[in-house]
Design goal:
The chain contains three helices and five strands, in the order ββββαααβ. The protein is α+β, with helices and mostly antiparallel strands. The strands form two sheets. The chain has a three-stranded antiparallel beta sheet. It has a two-stranded antiparallel sheet with strand order 1-5. The protein is globular and about 35 Å long.
Length: 98
């Protein structure tokens, strides 16, 4: 797992379409064919909430604090969860570092 970087800022990749269905956020990369089910990514409520906050201006510290406030997590747990989420989102190229 990567180290949590509080001052890092991410922006969403505009090549992803987002839909909210039954409480889950669905990410669909535009560069893939819609028939390819492997190109559709489901985010749970927590990850979806963070996804909606990634705007290219908020730092990871801001996102961590929002996660702590909403889900009453300990700081270490929130940072670990965010590190894992950011790693996955970077792997599928859904987010980019600013």
């Amino acid at each position: 797992m990567k180290e949590f970087r509080p001052d890092r800022i991410y922006q969403r990749n505009p090549a992803f379409v987002t839909r909210k269905i039954a409480g889950e956020v669905i990410l669909i990369p535009l560069r893939q064919k819609i028939e390819d089910i492997r190109s559709i990514f489901n985010l749970n409520e927590t990850a979806g909430g963070i996804w909606e906050l990634i705007d290219g201006t908020r730092t990871c510290r801001n996102l961590r604090d929002a996660l702590i406030e909403k889900f009453e997590l300990q700081t270490a747990q929130a940072e670990s969860d965010l590190s894992i989420l950011f790693k996955h989102l970077e792997e599928i190229e859904a987010i980019q570092r600013m």
